[in-house]
Design a protein that fits this description.
By secondary structure, the chain is an alpha/beta fold. The protein has helices spanning about 5-20, 20-30, 35-45, 65-95, 110-120, 135-140, 205-210, 230-240, 250-255, 285-300; strands at about 50-55, 60, 95-100, 125-130, 145-150, 160-170, 170-175, 195-200, 220-225, 245, 260-265, 270-275. Among the domains are: about 5-85, Winged helix-like DNA-binding domain superfamily/Winged helix DNA-binding domain (Arc Repressor Mutant, subunit A), CATH 1.10.10; about 90-160 and about 275-300, 3-Layer(aba) Sandwich (D-Maltodextrin-Binding Protein, domain 2), CATH 3.40.190.10. The chain is built from ten helices and twelve strands.
Length: about 325
């Protein structure tokens, strides 16, 4: 009889190859090293080939292992999607909506939208799920969340629907003692000589979008320290080693005594959108979409929320924020 694919054992093999070390893979999988080694041997015996070259450091796949994992990873991903689809279905039947967010994108506008939604579907329970700033749309794709408030750039829009919540003003975060800090605003050319924060875990396209790279001036953008969260970004800026272009919502929700936020008047548009799966028809998701549309339709073009964010359109002038 031909061997069948054991997803559990395949997941173990993928962890060993990804980590390049049996011990680290065992820690990641929460099993003992000896148990993991035994499971890999079991998979090799089932397939009749050696899948891992245990003589190399780091541990790597054999040619058979590489060929096997290339195809098997697709099966693992499909299994994850299948489980996520069922979980999303259970949430919909139970009246639960998982809404992804980044701390800085929440505020009065989000509370207002959720209040509108609850008036239409009062029995729905909303679970707020905090997500990394560059992984929000991915969480919708893989059904980790039912909807998410996302900022640009969204690198993969296939299969998702975007409903505009508001257009955000972009600002540059500068240390309070910076030579530009006393200005009321800046243009991108003012930042050409500055070192910009990067994120070594994010897609390079995402990093370049926020840094406005390439620049209108043609000057290359210089990158320095890496930050993975808003709080990390603010601490890096406050230390004076780099600056960061970000949304005005960050200045409104994360005041820092060592940082000044100045509008970048020639920055590109920054739409904040509600991201849902295009095929999502759950009543709570549809009610949330309608709430976003209603809030956008009734907001004044230059209305500003108490947290410093604009509801719709880019405000012609945003005061400097400390």
């Amino acid at each position: 009889m031909a061997p069948t694919l054991n997803l559990h054992l395949t997941q173990y093999l993928a962890a060993v190859v990804d980590e390049g070390h049996f011990g680290r893979a065992a820690q990641r999988l929460h099993v003992s090293g000896s148990a993991l080694s035994k499971q890999i041997r079991t998979l090799e015996d089932k397939l009749g080939v050696e899948l891992v070259d245990r003589r190399t450091h780091p541990v790597g796949p054999t040619e058979a292992g590489r060929l096997f994992l290339t195809e098997a990873r697709e099966a693992l991903a499909a299994a994850d999607r299948a489980l996520a689809a069922v979980a999303a279905h259970r949430r919909a039947e139970a009246g639960v909506l998982r809404l992804g967010f980044m701390t800085a994108t929440t505020g009065a506008h989000t509370r207002r939208i959720l209040e509108r939604m609850r008036r239409e579907v009062p029995d729905v329970a909303v679970q707020l799920i905090h997500l990394p700033w560059s992984a929000q749309a991915d969480a919708v794709h893989d059904r980790t969340v039912d909807a998410c408030l996302v900022g640009p750039p969204i690198l993969d829009t296939a299969g998702v629907r975007l409903d505009l919540v508001r257009n955000e003003t972009l600002v540059v975060a500068l240390p309070a003692g910076h030579h530009l800090a006393d200005r009321s605003s800046v243009v991108l050319a003012d930042l050409d000589e500055e070192v910009h924060i990067t994120d070594d875990r994010a897609d390079p396209q995402w990093v370049r979008w926020w840094a406005h790279d390439p620049r209108p001036s043609g000057r290359p953008v210089r990158y320095g320290a890496s930050a993975h969260t808003v709080d990390e970004m603010l601490e890096v800026v406050a230390s004076g080693v780099a600056v960061a272009v970000t949304g005005a919502y960050v200045g409104g929700s994360h005041r820092h005594p060592g940082i000044v936020f100045l509008p970048v008047v020639d920055a590109h548009p920054c739409p904040i959108s509600l991201c849902t799966r295009a095929d999502a028809t759950a009543p709570a998701v549809e009610a949330l979409r309608r709430a976003v549309d209603a809030d956008r339709a009734t907001s004044h073009p230059w209305a500003t929320d108490p947290d410093g964010t604009t509801r719709l359109g880019t405000s012609p002038a945003v005061s400097r924020m400390r």
